[in-house]
């Protein structure tokens, strides 16, 4: 039951695909930046021990004294783990390699699947008035990813426009179904977004066709093109929207944010 004395809270989206290098982190950073550009207040949760989202937004390892590990396993206060970024309206809970042991440490914890869910729903979150929380998942269907899916309202799946792209997707969909049957019955699939799309490449077009044939409306209209500006931006500790605001990559992530906002409005109506 919603608590009438508390605000509704942010929309929480897990960005997940157990396949490595498909554009999860790139999509997390740039979709978050595009949502923040519309005036929304956005929090990224870096739930990957690789810490790529933290690095890509310019958080030096030395500045990551208190991380998502401390939030999940040490009950660190939100005020200590949420850090601002260079972009207005965009904050991050960073991670470091310490998180790699969490998967094992969580096993003996009775609330192991609910730690992120509970952390993001503590009353102290209200003061931040976030509109969106985007969770960057590791390339695995481990307990960290399960925590993300239990905490989230929906899952957004980046799909690289390459051979074998659809392989593994059935395992991911099965995991989502299992989480729905147990810990989070309301979990939705936000959509599948084609990443690193190259319209001159037949393979990209083939993957798109397969995805649309198999998944229909679940596939976002917006495709994220392969764009060198997108891959350069993290080394300047910026989203592509800041690094090269007029690039095709930046424009595509703005389009994706608009589509997401429209979908959310349609579901609420
Ligand atoms: N649209 C794009 N155009 C060009 N390069 C891209 C694009 N999207 C992602 N990349 C590059 O592809 C690589 C993998 O992307 P990313 O790190 O976002 O994937 P990931 O799914 O988060 O990987 P991991 O599974 O390791 O966490 C990175 O080097 C990134 O810069
Ligand atoms: Mg990543």
UniProtKB/TrEMBL annotation:
Pfam families, per the entry: AAA_31
Superkingdom in the source lineage: Bacteria
Boundaries of every AAA domain copy: 11-189
Gene3D superfamilies for the chain: P-loop containing nucleotide triphosphate hydrolases
Residues in the signal sequence: none
Main function: Involved in chromosome partition. Localize to both poles of the predivisional cell following completion of DNA replication.
PANTHER family hit by this protein: P-LOOP CONTAINING NUCLEOSIDE TRIPHOSPHATE HYDROLASE, PARA FAMILY PROTEIN CT_582
Name listed for the protein in its UniProt record: Chromosome partitioning protein ParA
């Amino acid at each position: 039951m919603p608590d009438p004395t508390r605000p509704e809270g942010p929309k929480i989206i897990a960005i997940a695909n157990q396949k490595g290098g498909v554009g999860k982190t790139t999509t997390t950073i740039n979709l978050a930046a595009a949502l923040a550009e519309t005036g929304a207040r956005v929090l990224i949760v870096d739930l990957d021990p690789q810490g790529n989202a933290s690095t890509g937004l310019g958080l030096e390892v030395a500045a990551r004294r208190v991380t998502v590990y401390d939030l999940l396993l040490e009950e660190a206060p939100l005020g200590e783990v949420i850090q601002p970024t260079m972009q207005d309206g965009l904050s991050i809970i960073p991670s470091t390699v310490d998180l790699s042991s969490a998967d094992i440490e969580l096993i003996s914890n009775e609330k192991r699947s609910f730690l992120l869910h509970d952390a993001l729903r503590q009353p102290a979150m209200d003061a931040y008035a976030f509109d969106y929380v985007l969770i960057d998942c590791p390339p695995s269907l481990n307990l960290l990813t399960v925590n993300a899916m239990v905490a989230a309202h929906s899952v957004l799946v980046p799909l690289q426009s390459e051979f074998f792209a659809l392989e593994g997707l059935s395992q991911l969909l099965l995991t989502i179904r299992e989480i729905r049957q147990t810990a989070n019955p309301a979990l939705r699939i936000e959509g599948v977004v084609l990443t690193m799309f190259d319209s001159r490449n037949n393979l990209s077009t083939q993957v798109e066709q397969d995805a649309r044939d198999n998944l229909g409306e679940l596939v976002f209209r917006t495709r994220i093109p392969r764009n060198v500006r997108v891959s350069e931006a993290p080394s300047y500790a910026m989203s592509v929207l800041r690094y090269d605001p007029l690039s095709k990559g930046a424009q595509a992530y703005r389009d994706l944010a608009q589509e997401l906002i429209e979908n959310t409005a349609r579901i609420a109506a």
